[in-house]
Amino acid sequence: MRSCINLWIVVALVVPVLLSLRSPRGETQPRTTSSAASFSDSSSFSVKLANTFHFNKRIRDGSNLEYDFYRATCPQAEGIVRSALTRIYFDHRDVAPALLRLFFHDCFIQGCDASLLLDENDGDSNRSVEKQAVPNQTLRGFDKIDLIKEEVEQACPGVVSCADIVSLAARDSVLLAGGPFYPVLTGRRDNHQSFFEEATDEIPRPDDNVTRTLHLFNLRGFSARETVSLLGGHNIGKIGCDFIKQRLYNFQDTKQPDPSIPLDFLNQMRLNCPNNSNTNSNKEEFVTSNPMSMQALSSSVPSGSTFDSHYYQSLLRGRGLLFADQQLMAQDRTAKLVSAYASDDGSTFRMDFARVMSKMSNLDVLTGFQGQVRLNCSKPVTS
């Protein structure tokens, strides 16, 4: 009976995915209306679905990962991650965008290996770690990953990697926030090393132009379409004023605002982010205490789902919050993709986002005898 259900799900989902490859718009797919209901169905996805997602072969592409990798050693692992995250989410709704961003920053630097979580670099507490790099100083959610890891360790000590927990938690966070479900294979191993210099230099910046953004993603095997789709993850969560103040008050050291910002939108953003240049506040506290809703500020068309087309509609109107987001309209090929994603109810974006997130979760992973399984996500295992 279960195999029949699996086959039905595979057919229902694979066909629209394949159709989406034919054009930027693709075919529509039903919107996720109930996150809780989706969670109950997610376990029935088979490895066949995951295999329909194309992985770039120039990188370690996750080919050694498996569907339900822990079925013999910790069969309840994914259920523990899901239930723990669900409890956290209903107390802290902002955990979804926080874990999505944490996942991206981890995978973008040397792959999905949980190196971002380390407080020690290869056992040396005096060497800088990724957490300390400027692009990572505003990341949140480390404590939530630790809570989930503790529950998993109680059930299956020393079995499930932190890298797998981060990838699963990001997938489940997207679903809880109203986004699409996508397959995540497991069997990742944790890195014992952290990459401070790489994180400092290679994480995309909020003030990057479109050329640099596309270049950084291309180095990791992502096309322009996949890049535009991934950036659509910015449609959930909040943004700290520190990310956009330069654009509002001193764009490219001109002491003037970015001239591309519509005047009414500029005034609206300045009201939310006044130029308190004398304020001496910790950056992390500032982000937490002075958050600004991306969806509200972009004045998009109201919708029943956060994972819809409002992010792209905002870019069409020149109302992207980050300079790097608005830069997607500066090049014909990315502007056409923005326009395509904005032209329906979000179905095309959701389909593409699911596919590229599955690809991202397999980016440059450690498997087999590579790496280690940490007992504490912030400390490497030393022997």
Automatic annotation (TrEMBL):
Q: Which residues of the sequence carry a binding annotation for heme b? A: H234
Please name the CDD domains in this protein's record. secretory_peroxidase (cd00693)
Q: Name one GO biological process term.
A: response to oxidative stress
Q: Which GO terms describe its molecular function?
A: heme binding; lactoperoxidase activity; metal ion binding
- InterPro entries named in the record: Haem_peroxidase, Haem_peroxidase_sf, Peroxidase_pln, Peroxidases_AS, Secretory_peroxidase
| EC class (word) | oxidoreductase
**SUPFAM superfamilies the record matches:** Heme-dependent peroxidases
Q: Which cysteines are joined by disulfide bonds?
A: C74-C156, C107-C112, C162-C377, C241-C273
Q: What do the Gene Ontology cellular component annotations say? A: extracellular region
This entry's Enzyme Commission designation comes to 1.11.1.7
The residues listed in the UniProt record as binding Ca(2+) 2, with positions renumbered to this chain, are D308
**Pfam families per the record?**
peroxidase (PF00141)
Q: Which residues bind substrate?
A: P204
> Cofactor note, please?
Binds 2 calcium ions per subunit.
Q: Which cofactor does it need?
A: Ca(2+); heme b
Provide the protein's localization: Secreted
| UniProt site positions, description: Transition state stabilizer | R101
Q: Main subcellular localization, coarse class?
A: secreted
Q: Where is the Plant heme peroxidase family profile domain?
A: 64-381
Binding residues for Ca(2+) 1, per the UniProt record?
Answer: D106, G111, D113, S115, E130
Q: Which reaction equation describes what this protein catalyses?
A: 2 a phenolic donor + H2O2 = 2 a phenolic radical donor + 2 H2O
- Write the record's keywords in alphabetical order, separated by commas: Calcium, Disulfide bond, Glycoprotein, Heme, Hydrogen peroxide, Iron, Metal-binding, Oxidoreductase, Peroxidase, Secreted, Signal
Segment forming the signal sequence: 1-20
* Family membership: Belongs to the peroxidase family. Classical plant (class III) peroxidase subfamily.
Function summary: Removal of H(2)O(2), oxidation of toxic reductants, biosynthesis and degradation of lignin, suberization, auxin catabolism, response to environmental stresses such as wounding, pathogen attack and oxidative stress. These functions might be dependent on each isozyme/isoform in each plant tissue.
Q: What is this protein called?
A: Peroxidase
- Upper classification of the organism: Eukaryota, Viridiplantae, Streptophyta, Embryophyta, Tracheophyta
